[in-house]
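Section 5.1 Outputs to date
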Amino acid sequence: MFEQVFDEEERGQVGIGTLIVFIAMVLVAAIAAGVLINTAGFLQTQAEATGEESTAQVSDRLQVVSQSGTFDETADGGEGDGQITDLEFVVAQAPGADNIDLDEVSAELIGTAGQETFRLGDEDAVGIEIFTDNDGDVVLTDNSDRATVSITLDETTFGDSGANDLGYVLEEGDRLSVTFTTSSGATTTSEIRVPSTVVEDTVRL
């Protein structure tokens, strides 16, 4: 059944050939293992980055605590019933959110005649006041932080289009959708509904 090798030289050659094959198999296995480890490490890093970005897009958002508007009876020249000339939002960090720089937050207004998007820190018509002791700091760092974001609607031009042309000056009974988007891509939408009859200068919306 087994062939006996009586020549000592042939016996040595068979042993060397087996050793060479064994070493080759070990090298191939080591290379394959290295490729698998590198690929697994890359996939793990990519998965972690994707998970962090996805989490930020969900959690790193603003929370609108309250919203109101300033009603001016003479804003339309006395020809009608007046208009909402300013919007004011009190905002905070949503639960689980990281630091939010309000200057980097963008706002999208969708009115009766169109939409306009702008960054809060780029518009003179936008005012930001944060309730902290640091002057000029507009970064929300804690869930207890609150900030006021005010948007002037009348006599204001956002981008290339006038707010008046897009229906952003609100009258009684009008509606407006405002969406805040943080730098991480998390969005918060607030619906503005002006009462059909306004009897006060400051109106909760």
